[in-house]
Write a structure and sequence with these properties.
With 492 residues, this protein is of the alpha/beta class. The protein is built from 19 helices and 16 strands. 43% of the residues lie in helices and 12% in strands. The chain is elongated. Bound molecules: adenosine-5'-triphosphate (ATP) and magnesium ion.
Length: 492
């Protein structure tokens, strides 16, 4: 790298930017990596503000300008920025005060401090207060860009660890497999909508791949480097939901010893995936509606409004329209969520995808378990195609896992390795015909009794092992646990 040419900070920087025009060894187009990154530049010197602003825009940053600390605070509260590039010495409110006022409210905001010559001690103090970095005037724009890149990279790592899959999901980032017309349509819908901020409602039976579609949307969107935060609305006890979604201020209640960011804030600049949305309790539906409409929220115990720049994805395996009609789900919220629905067809309607899915799932399971890859025989594949898979791909995955274990050292899976279910004629009903008496039935009570009977039977066969019972019932473990919690209310 060539020696940086010291510049006097003001006019010379402007001239210098124009003369040099670009990064050494980095073509201008590389600035596109900064597209969608929003910088608030706080600088009281009008000329420097304008020339630095222009230089940053040339690198594709979205730049907003503020000429003093108060204007900076006002803008930060009204918008969502990635980086605050602030002069240390500002009229009115200093850079340090701006940093202190924004630190707790916007912990994800990267603060880079610009200091004058001889201000290093102050800069180091600013880093102790939470600034990501500092840069001393005069500087070259490549120096500044390197520091911004470094700070963005550090934030990406933080975000990455935040979006790590929760135990309920398997952490796969595979593409959606399937060439059936139904899956082609799903993939077409994903690519139509991925690059936008449009809210997407993902619909489909249990185990069809709703979470995978959510990941595909996020991973193909401009937000792919920001967090994808998944919230399983069915797995959070309703009394903890508000705290989970909105977080709390320090001291908001007796146990709140620390400030805690809610899921919406964790997802800021990225995507939030609200799984099993039909389980959202009525009192929170109104709050979610407000987030969808206003793109802002408040922490529990807080009075400040936090701006949110998030993309919302939601999924359900229930008929939300029916829930709206029965009054269990707010109609206005339904319309806000149902902007761009994607329906994933059940596996029984796209059995032609099985020859593609099965080898992929075998490879996935064998790699995960560290065992040599197994193949499937044609006879076993025929059995898989004959069966209807009410639990869809998750059930298929579980059946293959069991078959792999039963096959032992054998390299090929035989029909006998597959669960007995696969050999049963597809339409065998699990329960006898039901008669409805003239006076009618209590639908919800009967359904919940049937659910209870199934869970009890599942646990009995699994000898009380909940993970095994969840596999048998083709439920996620967390879903089974939540159902059990509901069935056995804790004694008060
Ligand atoms: N098209 C596909 N290609 C490859 N794997 C898939 C596909 N669809 C689903 N899977 C796999 O099937 C399993 C279930 O998928 P996923 O968790 O996305 O389903 P879901 O619809 O969210 O289920 P639930 O309603 O139970 O939450 C996952 O392991 C996923 O990786
Ligand atoms: Mg799911």
């Amino acid at each position: 790298m060539r020696d940086p040419v010291p510049l006097s900070p003001h006019k010379t920087l402007d001239t210098h930017l124009k003369l040099k025009g670009d990064f050494v060894g980095k073509p201008m187009s590389q600035g596109s990596q900064f597209k969608d990154q929003r910088i608030l530049l706080v600088e009281d010197d009008a000329e420097l503000r304008s020339s630095l602003g222009t230089a940053l825009r040339e690198f594709s940053f979205e730049v907003d300008l503020a000429e003093d600390g108060l204007e900076a605070i006002r803008k930060i509260k009204q918008s969502v920025y990635d980086i605050l590039l602030t002069d240390l010495r500002l009229p009115g409110l200093s850079g340090e005060e701006v940093l202190c006022q924004t630190r707790e409210l916007y912990p994800d905001l990267i603060v880079i401090v610009v200091t004058g010559y001889g201000d290093v001690r102050n800069a180091v103090n600013m880093m102790k207060l939470g600034a990501a970095d500092y840069i001393q005037k005069p500087f070259l724009k490549e120096e500044l860009l390197l520091r911004i890149e470094k700070a963005l990279e550090e934030r990406r790592w933080r975000w990455h660890s935040r979006s790590l899959p929760q135990p309920s999901s398997n952490g796969e980032f595979v593409d959606l497999l399937g060439e059936s017309p139904g899956m082609q349509q799903v993939k077409a819908r994903v690519s139509q909508v991925a690059s936008l901020r449009t809210t997407v409602l993902i619909l489909g039976e249990t185990g069809v791949g709703k979470e995978l579609v959510a990941r595909a949307i996020h991973n193909n969107s401009p937000r792919k480097d920001a967090p994808l935060v998944t919230v399983n609305c069915g797995a959070i006890p309703s009394n903890l939901m508000e705290d989970e979604f909105f977080g709390h201020e320090k001291g908001a209640f007796t146990d709140a010893q620390q400030l805690r960011l809610g899921r919406f804030e964790q997802a800021n600049r990225g995507t939030i995936f609200l799984d099993e949305i039909s389980n959202m309790p009525p009192e929170l539906q109104g709050k979610l509606l407000r987030v969808l409409q206003e793109r802002e929220c408040q922490r529990v115990g807080g009075s400040q409004t936090i701006r949110l720049d998030i993309r919302i994805l939601a999924a359900t395996n229930t008929n939300l329209e029916e829930r709206v009609q029965s009054g269990a789900f707010r109609e206005d919220l339904f319309y806000r969520l149902n902007v761009f629905p994607i329906w994933i067809p059940p596996l029984r309607e796209r059995k032609e995808d099985l020859p593609l899915l099965v080898p992929h799932l075998l490879q996935k399971i064998c790699a995960r378990e560290g065992i040599p890859l197994k193949q499937i025989t044609q006879e076993a594949m025929k059995d898989l195609i004959r069966y209807d898979w009410p639990g869809n791909i998750r059930q298929l995955e579980n059946a293959l896992e069991m078959a792999i274990i039963l096959a032992g050292e054998r390299e090929y899976l035989l029909p006998g390795d597959l669960p007995a279910l696969c050999h049963r004629p597809a339409e065998t009903p699990l329960f006898p015909n039901i008669g409805i008496p003239p006076e009618g039935v209590d639908f919800h009570r009967l359904v919940s009794e049937f659910e209870k009977a199934l869970i009890t039977e599942g646990l009995k066969i699994a000898q009380g092992k909940r993970s095994k019972a969840a596999t048998l019932l083709n439920l996620k473990r967390t879903t089974l646990l939540e159902k059990l919690r509901r069935l056995q209310p804790t004694p008060s």
